[in-house]
Design goal:
Layout lengths: L1 H22 L6 H8 L5 E6 L6 E6 L5 H15 L10 H6 L6 E3 L2 H8 L3 E5 L7 E5 L29 H11 L5 E8 L5 E8 L5 H12 L9 H7 L12 E3 L2 H10 L2 E5 L5 E4 L17 H31 L6 H11 L6 H21 L2 H21 L5 H13 L6 H21 L1 H17 L1 E2 L2 E2 L54
Antiparallel strand pairs: 1-2, 2-4, 3-5, 4-5, 6-7, 7-9, 8-10, 9-10, 11-12
Length: 516
């Protein structure tokens, strides 16, 4: 009986899926397509009567640029009417209209797709299956300013991406002027029909990585692709991990660096963010600014970032472990101020830390969601007021406020926002383990994190390279950034087809005068 009920439920689900599939099925012919489109108020049908024979033009008013329609279609055809040349076939449209990319086709799938992307359908006869597709796509509503907003750096270019795929590909090609920069376009999304571009350099990028990306994107069955971040989660090797397995960036220089290193870049139309992979854990602590500064300064700031993330992850948990179980490890000079700070606090250290950490998250989320000027004011004023009030009300200690504030600041030391979110999330389970078992719980938390990241892979590449598996030659651009004289080879773990990136030569001083 239970088995029969299970079969019935599966049958109902299949029927619902069939109904859903029928709703998004393409039109059978152009007559049905126009009939379906007429239900929308923004669908227009125009008849051009001054041509022989009259032309029928169908388009969505909200998708096209009406200036192009008027100037390059209507006016162009009106200019040709004086010649009284009869349009015997649609190929003549290409000579009349000063527009590139006009297609003549009878494929209904292609016609429907182009119509919904901002093309106009031109027919010689009523319900003629063969039509001309004229590109009239509008650029209205797209962001013109392409400064980087979330990955800001003081030194170096500040060119970022926008929500238009063609503009983003233009930005990439203007920096990489080589014919073997390959761009492959795929269509994903049963409802959105979003264009997704796979970008790599032929002769450098490993073909297996490209094939893996293509296969995973091709297997996606999704309705609407809003942003590249959705593709990041779907094609990830482990979607259950809190750690991001692909670099997500809005900076052009970071994408260019990834491409010349042998990685694959992916971007969706309507998204200003690229994802690049295979990525390792250390890639998330690399800032493009490291390469614009002298290598000693770049290495110093990179080490500061790594130490800052470690401090942010374990500082609050270490406070809980010490004040709950291990008072004996506190130096005598520090013990008295700590006791004085906590003598009126009625809560145990765990609840004290949890209260402050959640308060910080509230302030951070509120500041991020509000307009920039209000958000900055709320973050500063709210933090000061809440912190001062919490101390005066004896809800927390002064020392803990300093620790939690420094942890919050250190979590933003990572250049990639997704990794900072991961660090913010992992602090809470580590704090809980420290509250349960003290230093043992802290060690358990560290061990679980280490075991988890060593098991992660990005497009089949180990996540913890070059530490595990050990690659000594790649240490020159992981924890530190070495001189350009040393970093002239591409990362070995990416298995690039060409290992040598450039040939370093020592600069030699030349005399102003020729010496005899």
């Amino acid at each position: 009986m239970h088995k029969k009920r299970h079969i019935t439920e599966n049958t109902k689900k299949n029927e619902e899926w069939v109904k859903h599939a029928m709703l998004i099925t393409n039109a059978k012919d152009i007559e049905e397509l126009i009939s379906l489109s007429k239900r929308s108020s923004d669908f227009m049908i125009s008849m051009i009567t001054f041509t022989q024979p009259p032309l029928k033009i169908c388009y969505y008013q909200t998708l096209i640029d009406e200036k192009i329609l008027q100037q390059h279609v209507f006016h162009a055809l009106e200019h040709q009417k004086a010649s009284r040349y009869e349009l015997k076939h649609l190929e003549a449209i290409k000579t009349y209209l000063p527009i590139d990319g006009i297609q003549i086709t009878d494929q209904i799938d292609e016609i429907q797709s182009k119509l919904l992307k901002g093309y106009a359908i031109v027919q010689l006869k009523e319900n003629d299956p063969i039509c001309a597709l004229v590109p009239l796509t509008s650029k209205e509503g797209l962001r013109q300013n392409n400064d980087t907003e979330n990955e800001f750096s003081v030194v170096g270019p500040k060119v970022g991406f926008v929500e238009d795929l063609d503009t983003n590909l233009h930005l990439i090609r203007t920096q990489l002027n080589i014919p073997n920069l390959i761009v492959k376009i795929m269509t994903i999304g049963s409802l959105s029909k979003s264009k997704v571009a796979i970008i790599y350099i032929d002769g450098i990028t490993n073909k297996e990585n490209v094939a893996t990306i293509e296969q995973r994107l091709g297997d996606i069955d999704f309705d609407v692709v809003f942003d590249t971040a959705q593709l990041d989660q779907i094609i990830s090797d482990n979607s259950l991990s809190p750690f991001p397995l692909f670099i997500s960036t809005e900076r052009r220089d970071r994408v260019i660096y990834s491409l010349i290193s042998g990685q694959v870049a992916v971007i969706s139309d309507g998204s200003p963010y690229f994802i690049t992979g295979p990525s390792t854990l250390f890639d998330f602590f690399v800032s493009p600014e490291d390469y614009y500064l002298p290598w000693m300064l770049g290495s110093f700031f990179r080490v500061i970032r790594i130490l800052g993330v470690i401090f942010s992850l374990f500082a609050s948990a270490l406070y809980v472990a010490i004040t709950t179980f291990h008072y004996e490890v506190i130096p005598r000079d520090l013990l008295a101020p700590l006791i004085f700070s906590r003598q009126n606090v009625p809560f145990p250290p765990f609840l004290e830390v949890l209260f402050l950490e959640i308060t910080i998250e509230f302030l951070r989320e509120a500041g991020a969601r509000l307009p920039s000027k209000i958000g900055q004011t709320l973050g500063i004023v709210g933090g000061i007021i809440v912190g001062q009030a919490a101390v005066e009300a004896a809800l927390t200690s002064n020392i803990l406020i300093i620790i939690v504030s420094l942890s919050a600041l250190a979590s933003f030391a990572t250049p990639i926002y997704k990794m900072s979110n991961t660090i913010r999330f992992l602090r809470f389970p580590v704090i809980i383990l420290a509250a349960l078992w003290g230093s043992l719980g802290l060690l358990i938390g560290i061990s679980l994190i280490l075991v988890h990241i060593t098991r992660l892979k990005s497009l089949g590449i180990p996540y913890t390279v070059p530490v595990y598996p050990l690659r000594l030659k790649e240490f020159n651009d992981s924890f530190i950034r070495s001189s350009y004289q040393v970093t002239n080879k591409r990362p070995q773990h990416l298995k690039p087809e060409n290992m040598l990136e450039y040939k370093p030569k020592a600069a030699k001083k030349k005399s102003d005068f020729d010496e005899e």
